[in-house]
Structures are given as C-alpha cells and as structure tokens.
Design goal:
Layout (H helix, E strand, L loop, with lengths): L1 E5 L8 H4 L13 H24 L3 H28 L1 E7 L5 E7 L10 H27 L6 H23 L5 H23 L1
Length: 201
C-alpha cells in the first residue's frame, strides 16, 4: 500500500494549547450545522446502543438503527465536517494500475478559511471520545457474554476508529509517526509543568 502525504502546513493535534497566544482565531462557531451533525450521529448511535433495551425489544431494529447512524456519522465526518471544521480531509484512491493510495490533506492558508478554536475542540473531542466509548462497549459486551451485540460494537470501533486514524494522519502528516508525535506532546507537557513549578518556587 502506497501512502502520499499532501500536507504543506504544519498543524498540531491539540490546536487550543499551541494557539493560546494567537488572537487571530475566532472563538465563535462558523459552521453550526456541521458542528451539530458532527456530534448528532455519534451521540445518537451511543444513546441508541445504551437505551435500545428499554425502548425496544427488537434486536434487529436496534442493530439496523445503530449501524445506519454509524454509517451516517462516518460519511458526514469524513466528507463534510472534517473539511469545514478543521480543514482536513482524507481518502483512498485506486490508480489505473490497481495500486491503492491513501491521500491526506490539510488546508493551506490563514484568515477566513482558518478553523476556530471552538470548532476544532468540538471536532477533536467528538472524534476521540466516541471511539473510546465503542472500545469500552466492546469489552463490556465480551465480558457480559452478549455475543449478538459483538458485530454492532465492532462496527462502531471500525467506522469511528477509521475516521480517527485518517484525521490524525492528516493532522500529523503521513511521514510523521504517531509514536514520535505522542512523545513530543508528552515531552512538552512535562516541560511546561516543570517550568511552572520553578516559577511558583
């Protein structure tokens, strides 16, 4: 599998922390409808999974509803909200010779097209928290021996995990390893804490 990185701008995964000194980013939400649907399908799928036993006795209806919500979420996040809210997009392309190629892009430029801090936070919190919830649901389903729910929770992990992986690759670039990014982030956090303790003394 070939990967191509079309990432001309150095962007960080945790925008809010690194851009605190910059006042050019607006705090308001520029795309309220995109922000709403970014969270709507994700939260709805989780709520239907948690509450379907109370409101419905039909496993098939619950399963189909959850998978439809997860599919709508995958499509919406991949094709719309990622581009509008944080200026990132990714896709898989098959060349004429049959080679699969992954393309990761980030928006260039500043000014009007730059994402706001609020939208960036909404996007990344929703993108990270929901796959973690589906992983927790997977383990709880396995440990409680509710085998019929295993395909549903695995679909949740796969669809939301794929979007998370694609956008993290867009954010850090195709050539940067995720291990290096995590090491750099935690190193900066440790350094900030050490400096703040010295200033307090």
């Amino acid at each position: 599998m070939l990967t191509e990185d079309i990432n001309d701008e150095d962007v960080s995964l945790f925008d809010a922390e690194e851009d605190t000194g910059k006042k050019s980013k607006k705090k308001n939400i520029k795309h309220p409808l995109a922000s709403f649907f970014h969270l709507f399908f994700r939260v709805s799928a989780v709520l239907v999974y948690l509450l379907c036993g109370i409101f419905s006795s039909s496993f098939i209806a619950c399963m189909v509803t959850i998978i439809l919500l997860l599919s709508c979420d995958f499509w919406t996040v991949k094709n719309i909200t990622g581009r509008l809210m944080v200026g990132l997009r990714w896709w898989n392309q098959v060349d004429d010779d049959g080679q699969s190629r992954w393309v990761f892009e980030s928006r260039k430029g500043t000014g009007k097209q730059q994402a706001s801090d609020s939208e960036s936070r909404i996007f990344w919190i929703g993108l990270i928290v929901c796959p973690v919830l589906w992983v927790v649901f997977t383990f709880s389903t396995l440990f409680s021996l509710k085998i019929k729910w295993v395909p549903v929770v695995i679909m949740g992990v796969v669809l939301q995990g794929a979007n998370l992986y694609g956008y993290v690759r867009c954010k850090v670039g195709g050539k940067t390893s995720l291990k290096n990014m995590a090491t750099n982030y935690f190193g900066r956090q440790f350094l900030k804490q050490a400096l703040s303790k010295e200033e307090e003394s």
